[in-house]
Amino acid sequence: MRVFVNRVVEDGRVAFRCADGHGSSVAHWMGDRLPAPGTDAFVELTVPGPLTEWGPAPPTAAYDLQLGPAGVVVTGEVLSVGGHGDPVVVLRVGSDVVLGEVTCRAAGLRIGRRISFVPPRLEVYPYGL
């Protein structure tokens, strides 16, 4: 996912928006060096830990990240749901694919469904092209 870094916070978090102009977020930067504010970066978005709660998103909701009162709201389209014994759900968020682990029953996680959730933590891992 290509992002534009708006601001860097001392605790290792970065405020960014998706480079396509949609969505804004704050996440923990997992690279060796913090990026410079005002620059673009290519990152992989990760939701560490299991997802325990999510809800349906309206059919017109964009697949993106938005800052909300309770934290970052992640909205995505379910691309795949693991089978028995496989806790992984794959979501399309923005122009990226995000993997999440679910420990509770995957009720409501059907392919093509839009869901939203507020993870306790988001991490971004930079990579080069």
Structural account:
It is built from no helices and twelve strands. It is mostly beta strands and 129 residues long. Strands 5, 6, 7, 8, 9, 10 and 11 form a seven-stranded mixed sheet that branches. The chain has a five-stranded mixed β-barrel with strand order 1-2-3-12-4. It is globular and about 40 Å long.
Notable traits:
129 residues, mainly beta, 7-stranded mixed β-sheet
How would you classify the helix and strand content by structural class?
mainly beta
Outline type: globular
Q: Summarize model confidence as the mean pLDDT.
A: 86
**Main β sheet profile:** 7 strands, mixed
- The helix-strand sequence is EEEEEEEEEEEE
Proportion of residues in β-strands: over 45%
Work out the helix count. Answer: 0
Number of E-type strands: 12
Low-confidence stretches: none
* Estimated radius of gyration: 14 Å
- Helical fraction equals under 10%
By oligomeric state, this entry counts as: single chain
The rounded distance between the terminal residues' Cα atoms is: 11 Å
